[in-house]
Amino acid sequence: MVTSSGTDTYATIAAALSSLKGPKHGGANIKAAKMLENIKENISDYNNDEEIKKYLHQILNKEVFDKQGLIYGIGHAIYSVSDPRFEVFKSYVESLAKEKGLEEEFKLYEKVAFLAPKVISENRNIYKTICPNVDFYSGFVYKILEIPKELFTPLFAIARIVGWLAHRMEELINMNKIIRPAYESILESKAYTRLEER
Fold first, then answer.
1. Per annotation, catalytic residue among 49, 76, 83, 167
2. What domains are there in the chain, each with its CATH number?
3. Membrane spanning segments where (predicted)?
């Protein structure tokens, strides 16, 4: 869509990066890492499943953390039984955590990854299985590697940029018109009120 405006490649990629930045997409790894920090501060025993579950229920009920009712890094629009990226990534995260002396923190991540889908199922009417996604661990890894938070989204996007460029080339070769997103208001029409009467 941005390419169709006739802008350059740099602006197009910057716009694509910006579309990933929010906490419901590429920024989810930042939120997941912050959420786990919050859980660490509020849980006294990392091995107490009931204490962890109770706090996860509070997160879902918008009582604690950012009060949005979301457990970040859990669930995916496409993957339901398991996120294959999560499964592959987990073994590398475990070895990195051991190398850096963060086994206890990794165990807490494991506990939350195991318990969160159960807590979500108990709280919400979910029609499909829920699983941890790749964002669950990536913020933790970036933090271990001392990567600044500002680079989390660009790192998430690196693998996508080749595909974005391919789409851009296709658009430049095959199309020559602007794409305009449609918007249809569902609000009822109101009579105009003069400014001095408002």
1. 76
2. 28-149 (1.10.230.10)
3. none
